[in-house]
Write a structure and sequence with these properties.
This protein is of the alpha+beta class. The protein has helices spanning about 10-35, 35-50, 70-80, 90-105, 110-115, 135-150, 225-230, and strands at about 155-170, 175-195, 195-200, 205-215, 265-270. Strand 2 (about 175-195) and strand 3 (about 195-200) form a beta hairpin. Helix 1 packs across helix 2 (about 35-50). It is elongated, with a radius of gyration of 29 Å. Bound molecules: zinc ion. Zinc ion binds next to loops.
Length: about 270
Amino acid sequence: MGEYLWLIWPISIGIGLIVIGGVIASTVRRIRRSALGTIVNAVSRELQRNNGSLDQITLNQDTGPKSLSGMNETFKPQIEKDFPTLNIKELMSMSECLLQSYFEDIDTDNQTLRHLRDVEREYKFKNGRPIPLTPSLMKNISMEKANNESERRKPYFASVRIHRTVINHYSRRAATAVIVFQTALEYLHYVKKNDIVSLGNPDRIQQVRYNVEWLYVIDESKLNSSETQALSLNCPSCAAPITSISSRNCEYCGVSIEPIDIRLWRADKIYTI
Ligand SMILES: [Zn+2]
């Protein structure tokens, strides 16, 4: 017995090392799962992305994609019943495409690449098909761009990533039907005024939610004044408002007008919520 006594030391040291190893491993696991670990992981990820440069580190402080209030189960059957030939999935991806185009359009850097005055730019979907917008949305986008320019505001949109889109609402009135899609996305968005950041953070990816409302004219004879306004065009010659979407001639100067194709879903509103 006595001759094996010397074995106590290596054995207890071995057991000790195993215990210490286990404690360290579980502590590391716990830290990794904790808030501190999330930060450490984010920093190391960013370090890898920026090739080890520390001054470019972005810490994503938002916790993840925004939750959506989607009612696909409620509204989808109603839409399918009212519009059996409508491809809802396609309109949904058109909605996502519109958001991307809209950010590109508002972004000042992209504007300098194009003609700055090219305000009536067409938004294109797959195969170069134009995304139909109501005249009212076109006007709002043009106004937004003109206001930015006159107030020397430069909005930037980068790293846009769409997460998901759901049907948020559907309503049908006498003259029109409206589908609202809600999209969760992330982007790097900030606004510079006189070269100083006046809104947002250039180092922070934001998680946001956008609604896009799509409008369809079911019965043009029942349109109320605000609906007519949303769809109204201005005369290309004298800029007078055109009150009826089926008019062939301007009421004021008599110039002939292309009647607008109303058998189309048109994007009517874009807003963040
Ligand atoms: Zn006219």
